[in-house]
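Q: Joint fold for the lines below.
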Amino acid sequence: MTTPDLAIQTSQLSKSFGEKAAVRDLTLEVRRGEVFGFLGPNGAGKTTSVKMLLGLIRPSAGEGWLFGQPLGSSEVRRRIGFLPEHFRFHDWLTATEFLRLHADLYKMPSEKSRQRIQSLLELVGLNEFAAKKLRTFSKGMLQRIGLAQALLNQPDLIILDEPTSGLDPVGRRLVRDIIRDMRSAGTTVFLNSHLLSEVEITCDRVAFIKHGEVISTHPLQNLLDSEVTLTIRARRLTPGNLQGLEHWGHNIRLDGEHLTMILPGEAVLPEINQYLVQQGVEVYAFQPQKISLEDLFIQVVGTDGGL
Amino acid sequence: MGLNSIVAVIARLTFREAARRWVLWVALGLGVLFLIIYAIGLSEMSKDIQTTRSSLLAAEMNNFFLLAGMYVVNFLASIMTVLTSVDTLSGEIASGTIHTMVSKPVRRWEILLGKWLGFAGMLSLYLLLMAGGVAGVGYLVSGYLLPNLLQGWSLMWLSIMVLLGLSLLGGTVLSTLANGVFVFGLFGVAFMGGWIEQFGAFLNNQGAVNVGIITSLILPSEAMWRRAAFEMQSPLVGVFGVSPFSSNSSPSLFMVAYAALYALGVLWLAMHRFGRRDL
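A: Joint structure:
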């Protein structure tokens, strides 16, 4: 059953290559207009999932829809832009010729495509390289031209697979600005990136995937606002103290004099402090820190990286 | 823009790629070199041919040398067909170039048909220039024109279309290297089968002829060349059936129809297979 306000909807989407399950029961709901981060360690099944969404590979089981139309529909691809992770283009074309080719694949009228190409080359900062062949481009320039081709049709949904890899800080900021502009224009952005700091800045929600399964989906801002990592430097901590601390938090780790733990919020900090003092623990440092996406990633996915 | 606009876009891209990457120009440059050398050689041999008093013998010799030229053209066109097309799908699949294209609002069969059209156009042009060049050189040097030139050219064209379709079909399933081995392997089988059939016919050995027919059914490209040579050979050779290029076991019209269906069939299979495979 499809829901009209969803850009992406999948139900138990699975893909196996022989005996190996690359994606298992992928159930996702991405709302129209949101920036959605898709995170997971290498080999978790992210690219396979993206390929299924785009109709590049057929699911072994399950169903999926983009804007209410089944995956693989040629018609819905008119509304989608895509920048693949390991992109290779026809490098014997110039930047303008390359964009014109892709505009032709969108069946854009020539005058419209001419204007659009010009504005996109300006947007991604490649205007002066319009007549240069792609084979002369650096990796960062190729990433920019790839981004331009993904924006050609002013998509309702753009799928970006590692859009900032290979970009310098200026290029990364450019991508962030483009994503922000797209969100303002109501475009749905599906972002797959290893650069968690980028995701943290740009995304509304994130899903974590491991071993081909979605482990959890979080509204990013609320989550980052709520959880706190507490680092304590203390002496005379006993196993009983550690057990007692479990009352307020989880993921408690002790390394010498340093103790870290995850708290659900800042409200419990005074109680913990009071508890430690009452237990006779000598506290030298007490540092609460809001959880980063990297912490959350490790917490959800684990330190084995899904291997 | 209509449905076929995508096919036209990809066909143009394919043709332009061959030109930009110098494939077309190198092939045409070497083709011109071949024609120059052929013209010089034919011109020298023509001096000997003209010394013969028999105009019938002179015509036979001219026919032989022109068919030899056509044989080389057919071989070069076959090699060029496989070398240019063998990587077009498997290479773009392996590199990921195809991903940004098929994620556009296009049907995969349009991409494949566009590629076929681009290669077919380029190879037709190549064959036209090379075969036309050989026939033209022959006519200018000796005043002799091969009989049934249009039929001969059409059959040679059909031969390379068979190879082109097979190469594209292989590209939907195999890696570039495996596809090259596959198509050249079958080409070799058909080539050998053709000679076995020819010798079998000369020696009246039906078993050997049957081997040739079976290999022609597996890949009818060589059979189309032999039918082309049969059409373009002189009437005298036709009567005696003695020539390195043809025999009295020339492939039938049924085999020509089979080759045409084969070329269309492998193209359809390639479109179907490409439409269903994971990328």
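Q: Anything notable?
A: DSSP finds twelve helices and no strands in chain B. Chain B has one domain: 4-276.
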